[in-house]
Request: fold
Amino acid sequence: MSKLSICVAGCGTMGTGIAIVAARGGANTVLFDVARDRLEAARQQMANFFEKSVARGKLAPEQVEEIMGRVSLATDPAEVSDCDLVIEAVFEDLKVKGALFQRLNEHCSPSTLFASNTSTLSITEIAAVSGRPDRFVGMHFCLPAQLMKLVEMSPGLETTDETFDRAWSICEGLGQQPVKTLDQPGFILNCFLVPFNNDAIRLVEQGVAEPAEIDKAIKGALGYAMGPMELLDLVGLDTQVLLCEALHGVTHEPRAACPPLLRRMVAAKRLGRKTQRGFLEYDSNKIYGS
Reply:
């Protein structure tokens, strides 16, 4: 049997994290993006993460060499044609995702499964424009993907049982913990998290408390490993805007509406870790955990 081959399309924070999971889990991993410089930066972030794992005693240097040897970069869809699974991790925009899958569908083998890491958009709607709705599944990795095990798995209306079972097995084979959800806005986690994080933003907006104090209270009293402001900075404040628009646009839940402060911060390019300044400040834009 040939080794499992996974393409991760999109090499932002989430895509890079998923690529770490795939390569660490033993799969030949292809990072796909239209920009070569973004690909090179993502590969360096992966290497930095694994080097930190060596420093912490979690990996041996020879293991890192083996893992990174499974990673390749691609800007041409033809280079990912033989992958067993393509996991998309680009902007939360139906048109952007649809265009990407349509392009990949022209080159990928009929046996290649497509998966979206969307956390708010309809799997069925993305699958419908992908060219292979029966071989399409939602695979929402929790952020930071390289540290979290949970993956929300959602079938679309046309997803076959064979597709879902195969994707589920791949997920488990990578060492992740899948949970099945219906194709509903926000699935499980973001149904809670998007409104919750917006509530935290509104506390800042209203001058109730400083971001660091909010995080300290949430972690200290509720036992969360990461406060909402830290999480928002990790997700990216521009991504939170898209999450708000997608979830509020479908559910009309008032708490899911985008807070004005969030839009102002995005306009000022205070996007979080990737710009080294969001609700908190950072001394680098390295991937979380490295």
Notes: The two ends are 34 Å apart (CA to CA). The chain has eleven helices and eight strands. Residues 94 and 281 are 31 Å apart (CA to CA). The first helix runs from residue 13 to 24.
